[in-house]
Design brief:
6-stranded antiparallel β-sheet, Cathepsin B, Chain A, 145 residues, globular, 23% strand, alpha+beta
Length: 145
Amino acid sequence: MDYYYSQRYGGYKDEVIIPGPTMGEKGCLITCCSMMLSYFNNNPLYPEQLLHWLHKHNGLTSDGRLIWSKICEAAGGKLRMNTKPDSKPGEVTYGIRECKLSGQQHFVLDHPRESGKIIDPWDGKVKDFNSQNYTGKNMFFMGKQ
């Protein structure tokens, strides 16, 4: 099953991230993580569900930044993370990459099933990997399904 979420979806775009931006404005990373966890568990975890979980489990800093290790916790400890893909036999790798969108920091998810593709949480669409200008902060999550 494919899980393509857009941070600008009407059902949760106005959900507030601590202390003020909304999912529609700054929710790309949370949206990427919700897609990744949905793929990993083969069960939908919508961005607003993950946001509520992060609020409840202190998964965001006081200025609304994601605490990366909380994503592993949200996966029940079944995912580990690294700045490079170092999967072991039997593990699946998910990559979240930083890029620029209209000059602003933005994150996209490596498509877990289509090599060379990414899922852009801005619009929830699949795009060519080379269509983005990656800027550095790449996080990779590995785990056995």
